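Thread: Modeling a multi-component assembly for a lab meeting

Hi all, long-time lurker, first post. My supervisor asked me to bring a structural picture of a complex we are working on to next week's group meeting, and I have zero experience with this. I have the sequence lines for every component (989 residues in total). Could someone generate the structure of the whole assembly? Inputs are pasted exactly as I received them:
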Amino acid sequence: MTTFDVRELLNEAAAHYRERPHAVEMLRECLERLDEPLRVGFIGTPGTGKSTLVSALAEWPTRALREIDLFDTPAFAEHVDATVRLVRHLDPDELAGTRSVGGSAFARQTAVNSVLVLGRADEVGAGRIDALLTAKQLARRAWREDPDCAGFQGVIAVAGQLGYAGRALRDDEFEVLRALASVSRPELERYLLSVDSFVDDPFPVRVSPESRKHLVSRFGLYGVRLAITLIRTGCDSRLKLSAELVHRSGLGDLRDTLAGCFVARAEALKARTAVLRLEGLLVAEPLPHGDRLAARVERFAAAAHDFRELRLIAGIRGGRTALSGESAEEAARLLGAQGLAPTERLGLEPDADPAEIHAGAESALVRWRHEAERADAAHAERAAARVIVRSVEGLLSLFVA
Amino acid sequence: MTAPAWLDVLNETLDACAAHGRADLAERLRRRRDQRAPGTRIAVVGFPKQGKGYLLNALLNAPVCAVGDASTPAVPTEIGYAADPAAVLVGHARENVPVGDLAKELEVRPPGSLRRVEVGLPRELLGTGLVLVDTPAIGDPRSPRTAATLDVLADAHAVILVSDATQELQPAELALARHIRTWCPALVLALTKIDVSPDWRELAARNRAALSETGVVADVFPVSATVRQAAAKAGDVALNERSGFPELLNWVGEQAARPIERTRALAAAVSVRAAAVELVETLQTRLNAVSQDNGVDQITLLHQAQRRTEELRRQNVRWQNMLSDEITDLISDAEYDLRERTRVIVRHVDRTFDEGDPVQIWPDFQTWLEENLAEAVETNYNWVSDRSEWIAQAVASTFGPHYGHAPELPLTGSGVDSIPEVGTPKIERFKIGQKLFTGLRGSYGGVLMFGLVTSLAGLPLINPVSLGAGVAFATKSVRDEGGMRLQRRQALAKAAAQRHVDDVFIRFSKEIKDEVRQVQRRLRDHFAALSDQLSEELTRQRELIIAGSAERDRRTQRVKKEIDRLAALHRKAGALGATARDIRELSA
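Re: Modeling a multi-component assembly
Sure thing. I ran the full set together rather than chain by chain. Output:
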């Protein structure tokens, strides 16, 4: 089912509801939102770094995120197309709070619209220099092992403050950092012990206490330490340092995930939101002849191959399928993890000619059909292979026309 | 050793708690009483990831507690003095493990197999018998970890609440602090991780304000384990000062230096006061519930009952009048109705026999009469019974909707079947012989009269003329006789029919009257009984209210006395723990 069908569905529903102005108003809003950018909401308890993350992403001049609107703690959680959920720690109590509750069968079946973010990753491991690496490992492990994380498109460790500061790194800040890095490590170490000792005089280099204070409030003590270490190990220009900080902070990962999971599937996700809201309306204000509409909503859920692809990608990436290594990579690619264009799905050069694409798709089809019909494979494996077959068939159907 | 002074007060409070169904409070007091710890116990509590482990390790200058990303143990760790470092896992059995391997050992134990861990360290700080208890992080209120921590708190003499400097005290943390301060004589807040927080000074001030707003007396110690560790490594005294730990250690030392007897007295005093306050709250709630009875006090209830009684009296007069009026009306109406119906029948009878000959029509007439009478009686009866029902309903409705059930009425049926048959009157037919005789008698005069006249003309006495006249005379007299006989028959039939109708009327008007009287009696009995029952109920209710108020007064008195006693205990405990300052004075 395409966006076009959803429009038709919404229009039909509006015709049914013409007696009730607020319902018509809502449906009209849904229709309009189909043309608007994807709406991504950031949800989390206070202190998880939501607003920092939102501003870090919102002011980022990156093509990948141009197509989305970001909302810090949206008032109506059901009105956003995708959510980024922030937690401070990955402990069971906090994760239990992120579990989605209720919702219709359709809402649960297509729950492919959220990623979990371990905010404040720089606090992990008491701020040792490898804190971010540890945090990344923790996040990956949680995604693979914790059943509470299984419902997410990804679990990503992000140091929002650091990423924000690193992305908007200014020349004067870089100069101060470089001046600090010029001091020998053992000498500087005791000044990097705590915020107090970093800000207080005496200080080994001539940097005013104000700019030191500014630096630590912007980067955090951990960020300052990391930046100095990075400068010492080769990031000798502002741009290099900025890129490295963004990379390490996990902000880049988050951006890629948002782009890959959400922006690429924007149409499907927006359609999903509209259908969910229509479904809610049908439940809240039943129509005398609403059965037909409800049936169409159900059909939308059943026909939405996008969501199946997304879920399977999450399953493969999270290590919850039997696939591994080469074939896992191929499966994820065919499902559109690296882009929805046929060449991207087939792993071909962007300028590959149609014959090549056709051949590639056919060989993939044969292979995965075989997988889907293997008698010795578990049911889940065959089901996964069938989803991939369906994706490849979608590619081939382009040639029929 | 003589029993300490606080023991009596504690025991008395404990009994009171048990007596008023607060086994939880009693249990806590019992633990305070029976605790035989050789030294002060200080619990370190906090929510997850606040740096409890780092704090303890920095306090002890030893890596005892799990820190960082390792999951904190689900059981408390008690750290006391020992000449040689030692760790014991206490489950079903005691198991010695090297201190260094403690974290690893704890990881592999299945959850629920251990009760606590005991660690011994050769530290001067612990030399006085002080025991530091590391507790599992508080989280989900239903989890066993949280339960274990609260269990530790019940035995602790002092508590260090750990909260990091990246975030203000959360409502849950404030609530925890309040709970601790109610049951424990001493509480401090350790504000950890001040090394990474640029604005920890403002935060500390805000936390102090929040604590005092919540009514919790607790010092705030900003500390940094990282700085302390670095200072220890470098042997830097000034840096150690900056870590904030010397002050915290000072406080811990103060707690440990107090003689254990005094510490126990203090803890007992605070616990007694806390238990007393909670118990009084329970009792007060009960008291309010007793005296209020859903918000309507008894005076109002009494007034209500009074009003109901008067209402009932008025109602009695009303329904009695109504019943007698209606019944009188019904009787006269019923009689009139039946009379009217029978009169119509009688008129019809008259008309019928004015024209018809009973000899010919009587059998048909008889059937008609019987049918019509039966119908009249039946209709009349139905009408009466309908109206009786209506009266019953009307009277019942004066009692209000709750009692609006009219009784079954003793209506036995119209008794139409028992109407006697109409007696056939004695109807004489005009028979041939009689006609002949009457004709002869009439013809005699005619023959003689005209025979004599015609004899003057020389004719014989019997001649055609006289014979003709005789025939004419005979015919007339026969006709006259026939008419007379018909009239007599008609009169007879009328009389018979009227008599029958009258009989029926008399009989059934009597029966209807009887029936209505039965109905009246039945209704009177029923509603009189109902009215009696209602008034009895009201009387009982009034008695109950009066009696209940006496009982309530007694109970209230008892509870009030109990509250006074608890207040006295509370004061005594306050005097005992004179140093336990700033506890809310109990207002009873």
